[in-house]
């Protein structure tokens, strides 16, 4: 389905963000991309739809090479790839409906989009998606009137409006609380499973990745250092990805969080209701 | 146990050497003394000016709206027409130039062209432009309209371009990722982010253009400024006072209504 061959990205500053990354994602597979910050996770998924231009290597989506496409062809190929962003990246001053319909921009001409006259099928699809993510009643609200979890749902609906063949998801839960994070991850996984949609999910939260992903790829300093199932992601594999000190600190941090959460719950439970 | 100092002084920030500091201060003082010496202040002229000023003030205190009302009202209508048309035309031209002058949405060569247009428009002060247009197209409000449109382009384009450069890039990236074209990117990601500020700036410019229309009239570009100039030339300070009061009142109305509207738009 998606195949990356020797993908390399060197920034103008001389920093190598990715070196020789190769893997393939079959239809319907949900891949979690983990690694410390600066490992090149964000660069990797942005190379796939060429928001970042790769230095060398090939990206093949459904038999079509995406590298070296001209502007017009690139637009047509970007429609096939839906993207969901870290801070939702909704256009705040547009309505929820406009944000969802903006997923159709690659399909409609300028005048149709400028006058907001989208084809009936697009409007119907947008309503269906809003209903799917549970925001049917919010269609005409402005995007900045929604909560974080709701905004991310709009982001998901926008990406799905493209009728993509691949989903790129960049830290979908980074600005959400733990409970909402799990809800959003569950929704994402459900939607991908329903339609056999492959997805690459950048995720810094290892337990969350282990819980929801079918396959995990670990990046370290721009190289793939782990590729396997969540069950295979052992302590030693994590140490390999994060480096021994960082991993211990992260695990400890996570345990502290859990302890703090448990403690807070305990304290809350003794308070008179 | 260590003893800590009880005194502290802020260390000099720019010139760390004491000699430089004293030397520069001294040089600035000497320059100031000599500069004042070259001004040739004439006390006789000051006294005379004071007397004229008093006459002007007296006229101002007894404004005469009626005897030149036809000229005043015609001048005001000309000024208001000039203001409104030049703002609309100026803003309409500024939008494409402003987009072209934003580094994050325009290619380098368009950026260079649009930035030069802005630089030219901003470098030439309204009065100079007005003199030029009056020489080209003759006296009257048409020259004023052109002048104000030209000045509006420099003002709105520059501020719009800066606002576009300051947008939240994530929103633009998200729209780009859907396969949107450049025009769609501008319409969906840029316009919603800059629109409130563009409207605010246009209202502010409307207000500036009215004030400027009074100034450029003096060099012959029509409007209330021309009427004011005529009144002063004829020593009709009472009529001039009336005109000034009208200008002040209109500027205040424009000021308050535009600031109210801008607040409403935020």
Provide tags for this entry.
heterodimer; A: 273 residues; alpha/beta; Rossmann fold; 3 domains; four-stranded antiparallel sheet; 10 helices; globular; B: 266 residues; mainly alpha; MetI-like fold; 2 domains
Structural commentary:
Chain A is an alpha/beta fold and about 270 residues long. Chain A folds into 3 domains: about 1-80 and about 165-180 and about 195-235, Rossmann fold (3-Layer(aba) Sandwich), CATH 3.40.50.300; about 90-165, no CATH class; about 245-273. In chain A, about 40% of the residues lie in helices and about 20% in strands. Chain A contains 10 helices and 10 strands. In chain A, the strands form 2 sheets. Chain A has a 6-stranded mixed sheet, sandwiched between helices. In chain A, α5 runs antiparallel to α6 (about 150-160), α6 (about 150-160) runs parallel beside α7 (about 180-195) and α9 crosses α10 (about 245-270). The longest helix of chain A has 27 residues, at about 245-270. Chain B has about 270 residues and is mainly α. Chain B has 2 domains: about 20-55, no CATH class; about 65-265, MetI-like fold (Orthogonal Bundle). Chain B is built from 10 helices and no strands. Chain B has helices at about 20-35, 45-60, 70-100, 110-125, 125-135, 140-165, 170-175, 180-215, 225-235, 235-265. In chain B, α3 (about 70-100) packs across α9 (about 225-235) and α8 (about 180-215) packs parallel to α9. The mean pLDDT of chain B is about 90. Chains A and B meet through α2 and α4 of A and α7 and α8 of B.
């Amino acid at each position: 389905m998606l195949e990356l061959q020797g993908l390399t990205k060197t920034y103008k500053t001389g920093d190598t963000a990715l070196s020789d990354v190769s893997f393939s994602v079959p239809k319907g597979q949900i891949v979690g991309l983990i690694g410390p910050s600066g490992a090149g996770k964000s660069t990797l998924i942005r190379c796939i739809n060429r928001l970042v231009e790769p230095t060398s290597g090939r990206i093949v989506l459904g038999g079509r090479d995406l590298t070296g496409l001209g502007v017009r062809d690139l637009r047509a190929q970007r429609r096939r790839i839906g993207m969901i962003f870290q801070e939702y990246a909704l256009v705040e001053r547009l309505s929820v409906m406009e944000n969802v319909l903006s997923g159709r921009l690659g399909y409609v001409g300028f005048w149709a989009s400028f006058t907001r006259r989208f084809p009936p099928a697009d409007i119907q699809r947008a309503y269906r998606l809003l209903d799917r993510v549970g925001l049917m009643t919010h269609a005409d609200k402005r995007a900045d009137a929604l909560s974080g979890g709701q905004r991310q749902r709009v982001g998901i609906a926008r990406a799905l409006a493209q009728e993509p063949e691949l989903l790129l998801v960049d830290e979908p839960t980074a600005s959400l609380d733990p409970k909402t994070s799990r809800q959003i991850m569950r929704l994402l996984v459900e939607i991908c499973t329903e339609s056999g949609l492959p997805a690459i999910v950048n995720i810094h939260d290892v337990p969350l990745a282990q819980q929801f992903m079918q396959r995990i790829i670990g990046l370290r300093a721009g190289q793939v250092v782990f590729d396997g199932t969540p069950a295979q992601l052992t302590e030693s594999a994590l140490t390999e990805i994060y480096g021994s000190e960082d991993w211990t600190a992260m695990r400890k941090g996570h345990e502290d969080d859990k302890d703090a959460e448990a403690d807070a719950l305990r304290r809350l439970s003794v308070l008179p209701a | 146990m260590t003893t800590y100092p009880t005194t502290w002084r802020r260390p000099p920030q720019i010139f760390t050497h004491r000699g430089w500091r004293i030397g520069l201060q001294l040089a600035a003082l000497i320059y100031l003394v000599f500069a004042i010496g070259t001004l040739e202040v004439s006390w006789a002229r000051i006294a005379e000016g004071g007397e004229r000023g008093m006459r002007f003030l007296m006229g101002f205190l007894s404004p005469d709206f009626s005897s030149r009302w036809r000229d005043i009202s015609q001048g005001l209508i000309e000024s208001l027409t000039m203001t409104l048309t030049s703002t609309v035309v100026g803003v309409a031209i500024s939008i494409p130039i402003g987009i072209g002058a934003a580094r994050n949405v325009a290619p380098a060569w368009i950026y260079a062209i649009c930035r030069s247009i802005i630089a030219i428009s901003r470098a030439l002060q309204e009065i100079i432009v007005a003199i030029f247009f009056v020489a080209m197209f003759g006296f009257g409000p048409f020259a004023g309209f052109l002048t104000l449109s030209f000045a509006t382009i420099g003002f709105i384009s520059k501020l719009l371009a800066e606002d576009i450069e300051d947008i939240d890039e994530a929103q633009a990236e998200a729209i780009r990722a859907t396969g949107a074209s450049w025009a769609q990117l501008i319409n969906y990601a840029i316009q919603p982010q800059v629109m409130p500020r563009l409207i605010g700036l246009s209202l502010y410019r409307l207000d500036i253009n009215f004030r400027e229309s009074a100034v450029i009239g003096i060099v012959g570009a029509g409007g209330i400024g021309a009427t004011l100039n005529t009144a002063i030339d004829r020593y009709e300070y009472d009529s001039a006072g009336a005109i000034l009061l009208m200008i002040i009142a209109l500027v205040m109305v424009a000021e308050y209504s535009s600031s109210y509207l801008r607040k409403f738009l935020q």
